[in-house]
Amino acid sequence: MNKFPCQLSHKFAPKRLKDCYPVAVEPKLDGIRCLIVLKHIEDDGEEFYDVSVFSRAGKSFTSLEAIEDAICDVFAETGWTEDMVFDGEVFCGTFKKTVSQVKRKKEQALDAIYTIFDILPLSEFNDEGSVLEFEDRREKLIEFFAAAAPTQKDLQLSKAILADSYDDIAALYIKAREKGHEGVIVKQITGDASRWVPKRSWGWMKIKEKNSDDCVIVGAEEGTGRLEKTLGAIVIQRENKILVNVGTGFTDAERQKLWRLHKKGKLSGLIAEVSYHEETPDGSLRHPAFQCIRIDKP
Questions:
Q1: pLDDT for position 165
Q2: What's the average model confidence in pLDDT over 154-158?
Q3: How many CA within 13 A on the CB side of residue 35?
């Protein structure tokens, strides 16, 4: 396994859904993605669970012990014997609060709720992916929550609604935004595209609102790993004087071109159009992504 396996989504493309309806539409939560791996361990004839929590990049989280305990409690009630992986989103009330609590090293995230949207056997959590279609995994997830005690509050099942058309999807997106969610994830429920894979998949497509701004570039940073000796991020300055690093949205060709301009001292001063989800309370940007250089603006 070359890297930590995690399924990601593409931007919504309606043409991809031809002959695929109905599809499942789930709210896109404004939290932190977490994958929880549960393994059966035997020691001196006694069986217990080993639970680990990871970010989508494979970084370990140690602040979610209450959620780990809840997973174990419900799992014990299912009677399942197979090691499993749970995929979902942790939320603590606001995105800023979630980041602060989940990334703690010595304290626990006391307000965390884990919304689970997928489950698969640990044996299929690898480079090849799962043979199970979405509807099969969803049934397994519903079975898991059926074993949960009525008083269990740390875990939630992601709400999935069937949509029979593009208009249905659009209506569900509007409702999700009204409830404060980032948007929706559209998922194929049967067929090859509905199977879990450890990469970006057209089986999952996201729709979320984005804003954009034109900002002056004031610097650049070299990348690391694959991006060594090329552009890792541009540094932009907003009208409020806040500096923001923008490290996504570039093609490899754009990274090389902009890095050459930076080395020649010709990058700073150019205007970059940057998309983003929303402005943070301190005037920075959430999820900024490079769109283009505005050659029509000085």
A1: 95
A2: 96
A3: 21
